[in-house]
Amino acid sequence: MKIIRDREELEGTGYIEVLPGKYLGHCWNENSIYFDEEVFGYIEKTIESIFSGYDHYAFNEIHRKTWEVILEDLKTFANLLDEKVTMELINEHVYFFFGSSKDEFQQDFLNSVQRLRELIIEFVVWIKKQLTTQDYVSVLGI
Question: Quick one: DSSP state of residue 12?
Fold first, then answer.
């Protein structure tokens, strides 16, 4: 469960790319970060709930004002993960794309929750940094 910052780590094309700025006609940008599709599902539900036009398979150009709302929701979720968290709470905020993923998450629940919290915080920090110089951050789907 991690953010991929080095394109050399990518194997195949099953990744979500998060690009500073608007989509300019090409993928696999050097200044982007990447997520395995399953890992992106841990934060995608929040993005989808706020950005109404979101499409997992499309190029989504998301404006700063929308990101500010998304980031607040993600921070709230991360804070909830510090409390007495249950699988029901996780299911409200997270997509598990593959059946085995939910089982794996539950098998090492406390460690999975901690890793999820760290992933969210790292993502929020990265997005905030991009928004200091960009009006948009794009999510380029599968």
Answer: S
Phi and psi (nearest 5°) for 50? -105, -40
Q: Which of 69, 72, 65, 54 is nearest to 18 (CA)?
A: 54
- Specify whether the CB–CB gap between 103 and 43 falls below 8 A: no
**Among 20, 17, 8, residue whose Cα is nearest residue 126:** 20
**β-strands 136-140, 59-63: how paired?**
antiparallel
| Contact yes or no for 63/31 (Cβ under 8 A) | no
pTM for the full model? Answer: 0.94
**Residue corresponding to tokens 């991690």:** 2
Residues 6+ apart with CB under 8 A from 118: none
Query: Measured in Å, how far apart are the chain's first and last C-alpha atoms?
Result: 18
Q: Pick the closest to residue 127 from 25, 50, 57 (CA basis).
A: 50
> Could you tell me where the DSSP H helices lie in 21-108?
37-50, 64-80, 87-93, 99-107
pLDDT digits (tens, 9 = 90+) for 17-43: 999 999 999 999 999 999 999 999 999
